[in-house]
């Protein structure tokens, strides 16, 4: 296929997530871009018809800005990346969620079908537009359903080209699909989908024109010699965009509530969707815990975590849907104290005389926890927020310090508070209380999932604490969360320098496109 004289590209590379609006919808914001490939046979021109494969129900559109490479790019910098773009145009990155599981997230069949990448109809010369002033819009049956601009991108065009060109040569005619904003949803046979990319503020307001695709119903059934379409309620919610969109589609009659799975949503439209669940524009899901490489809190990673604040880490976690990871109400036993380590858990239950008689004496769970804590671990104690008694005193705190523990966190009280405050080991608690263990608690068990200060804590979770409080980070998220937090604090420090120099916060905090360009130029200049 040829569009405006550009021959069939050797490569079509698509970005998983790139618009904050879409990332918020997905419940996760990637620290760095990730990609998948689409075959050249998936290309189609404007006015084409696209079959929804027989036996499927979740064909979704994704309006995108497509970059067409001009001068080949190999190991270029982000600042030079845009120079290698010859033109931009509209693209529609269609995908079938019913085949999401077929190729373990590579999207070969879910997004690689014939006609699944309409492109065009016209090319906009890259030299005529500002890469941060492009707009993408999508209409379904004449209704505007997607609209966003390139100045909001998580990963600007130049960065994508630089990143990809580190490992492969981007050749003349190659196409990069740069991600879709929020609003992607399911289309049905008979629907008309239109995508347009334009530069409304540029001279002449250049436009790609509308890329038109009509959806039809396929009739060729899948054979028994490969993966067949399959959907569940999670995939339905992901495909439609949200539970609300799915419910609205049912109410509008676009979905038959009660039809079979082969082309319609089942009668159970209420869906519980975990934040950050997989979708067609997210990378492949991680392997089950049993097959993942074991997480290790290395000294280097510990140092990186220690270099950023709990407040910044909490922002990165909230972007990924983790809102209840604060151990509420606890404070350090001295100014400037910090904790970074992996959780070792201890659980107390409410006091009862018979249970205390059976579990409170001897080498009980509390003593075992403090006597066996390993170097670098943080003892996290569930005390149900009970401040009316101590949960640790000077002897046990000293034992944890001698064993090399990274800290102690309890949502209860601390006995011998002044003495403990003089130790090297940081202790976060609800404050002092002179009572001994048997007043309100029974030491019950160790190394189990607990609730401390309203946060779920599992053994091995990463605990970080400073003057703003204590936060719990699931091990699988540590690398991306700390990378994003470090980048954010570097940006915040630069913003603070500008404010100290007299700059207004308007447009600077957060940075608009102009301020971000100045920031990136200064960083690259260093």
From TrEMBL:
Which residues hold Mg(2+)? 416
Named from the GO MF annotations, one term is:
metal ion binding
Q: Region entry Disordered: which residue ranges?
A: 261-292
Q: Does the keyword Transmembrane helix apply?
A: no
Cofactor names from the entry are: Mg(2+)
Query: What CDD domains does its record include?
Result: RraA_family
Q: Where is the Fumarylacetoacetase-like C-terminal domain?
A: 11-198
Q: Which residues form the signal peptide?
A: none
> What keywords appear on the UniProt entry?
Hydrolase, Magnesium, Metal-binding
- Name the InterPro entries for this protein: Fumarylacetoacetase-like_C, Fumarylacetoacetase_C_sf, RraA/RraA-like, RraA/RraA-like_sf
Q: Which domain of life is it from?
A: Bacteria
Annotated substrate binding sites: 393-396, 415
Name by which UniProt lists this protein: Fumarylacetoacetate hydrolase family protein
């Amino acid at each position: 296929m040829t569009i405006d004289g550009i021959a069939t590209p050797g490569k079509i590379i698509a970005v998983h997530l790139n618009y904050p609006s879409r990332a918020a919808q997905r419940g996760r914001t990637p620290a760095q871009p990730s990609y998948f490939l689409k075959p050249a046979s998936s290309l189609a021109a404007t006015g084409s018809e696209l079959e929804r494969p027989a036996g499927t129900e979740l064909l979704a559109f994704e309006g995108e800005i497509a970059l067409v490479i001009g001068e080949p790019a190999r190991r270029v910098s982000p600042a030079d990346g845009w120079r290698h773009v010859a033109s931009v145009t509209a693209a529609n990155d269609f995908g079938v969620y019913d085949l999401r599981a077929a190729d373990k997230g590579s999207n070969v069949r879910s997004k690689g079908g014939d006609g699944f990448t309409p492109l065009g109809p016209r090319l906009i010369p890259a030299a005529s537009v500002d890469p941060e002033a492009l707009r993408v819009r999508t209409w379904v049956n004449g209704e505007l359903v997607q609209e966003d601009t390139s100045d909001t991108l998580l990963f600007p065009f130049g960065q994508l080209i630089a990143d990809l060109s580190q490992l492969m040569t981007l050749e003349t005619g190659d196409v990069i699909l740069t991600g879709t904003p929020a609003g992607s949803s399911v289309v049905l046979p008979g629907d008309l989908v239109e995508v347009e990319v334009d530069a409304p503020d540029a001279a002449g307001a250049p436009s790609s024109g509308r890329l038109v695709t009509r959806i039809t119903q396929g009739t060729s059934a899948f054979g028994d010699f490969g993966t067949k379409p399959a959907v569940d309620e999670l995939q339905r919610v992901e495909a439609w965009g949200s539970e609300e969109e799915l419910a609205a589609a049912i109410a509008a009659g676009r979905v038959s509530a009660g039809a079979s799975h082969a082309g319609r949503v089942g009668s159970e439209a209420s869906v519980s969707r975990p934040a950050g669940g997989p979708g067609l524009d997210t990378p492949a899901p991680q392997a089950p815990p049993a097959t993942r490489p074991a997480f290790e809190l290395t000294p280097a990673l510990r140092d990186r975590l220690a270099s950023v604040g709990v407040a910044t880490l909490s922002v990165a976690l909230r972007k990924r849907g983790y809102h209840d990871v604060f151990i509420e109400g606890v404070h350090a036993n001295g100014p400037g104290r910090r904790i970074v380590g992996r959780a070792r858990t201890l659980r107390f239950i409410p006091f009862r005389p018979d249970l205390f008689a059976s579990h409170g004496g001897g080498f009980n769970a509390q003593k075992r926890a403090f006597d066996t804590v390993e170097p670098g671990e943080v003892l996290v104690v569930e005390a149900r927020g009970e401040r009316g008694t101590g949960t640790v005193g000077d002897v046990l705190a000293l034992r944890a310090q001698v064993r090399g523990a990274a800290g102690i966190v309890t949502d209860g009280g601390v006995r011998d508070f002044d003495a403990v405050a003089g130790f090297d080991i940081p202790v976060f608690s609800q404050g002092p209380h002179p009572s001994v263990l048997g007043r309100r608690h029974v030491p019950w068990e160790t190394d189990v999932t607990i609730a401390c200060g309203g946060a779920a804590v599992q053994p091995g979770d990463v605990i970080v604490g400073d003057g703003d409080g204590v936060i719990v980070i699931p091990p699988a998220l540590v690398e991306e969360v700390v990378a994003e937090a470090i980048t954010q604090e570097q940006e915040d420090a630069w913003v603070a320098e500008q404010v100290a120099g007299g700059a207004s916060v308007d447009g600077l905090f957060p940075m608009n496109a102009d301020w971000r360009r100045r920031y990136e130029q200064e960083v690259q200049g260093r």
